[in-house]
Design goal:
7 helices, Aspartyl-tRNA amidotransferase, globular, Arc Repressor Mutant, subunit A, single chain, mainly alpha, GatB_Yqey_C_2, Hypothetical Protein Yqey, Chain: A, domain1, YqeY/Aim41_N, Asn/Gln_tRNA_amidoTrase-B-like, carbon-nitrogen ligase activity, with glutamine as amido-N-donor, 2 domains
Length: about 150
């Protein structure tokens, strides 16, 4: 079942259950997917849909950080709930150990030896972990292994 089909089914159930927050999040994600589809002029692949979903999740995480910095717990709570809903549609996340092993393998694969090679490592690694790991965590692990 594609992401769009899952979103449509979940949207129907959210309407029936009168779950306003879930309905709102699903509608926003569907709108983002449709905007991306219009932008590129064709149906989105699963990979492209995942990219859009990742972007939505990242925006909410950034907002959460800002709200927490401003001591706006009311808004932070709402954003946390939205993040929880969005994570349902993401692929299963890699554990830090799995990710660390993948980083080591990629460093060996590209022959990186210093922090100057970080771009090469990140370029080879990010397609492998797309949607399965947070970019900032990947970045931190690559820096650790290269130093």
């Amino acid at each position: 079942m594609s992401l769009l089909e899952r979103l449509n089914n979940d949207m129907k159930s959210a309407m029936k259950n009168k779950d306003k927050l879930k309905l709102s999040v699903i509608r926003l994600v569907k709108a983002s997917l449709q905007n991306e589809q219009i932008k590129i002029g064709r149906e989105l692949t699963d990979d492209e849909s995942l990219t859009v979903l990742n972007r939505e999740l990242k925006q909410r995480r950034d907002s959460l950080h800002e709200f927490e910095q401003a001591n706006r717990e009311d808004l932070a709570t709402k954003i946390r709930d939205e993040i929880t809903i969005l994570e349902i549609y993401m692929p299963e996340q890699l554990s830090e150990e799995e990710l660390s092993q993948l980083v080591k393998d990629t460093i060996a694969e590209v022959g990186a030896s210093s922090k100057a090679d970080m771009g090469k490592v990140m370029g080879a690694l990010m397609p492998k972990v797309k949607g399965k790991a947070d970019g900032s965590l990947v970045n931190r692990l690559v820096q650790q292994h290269l130093s």
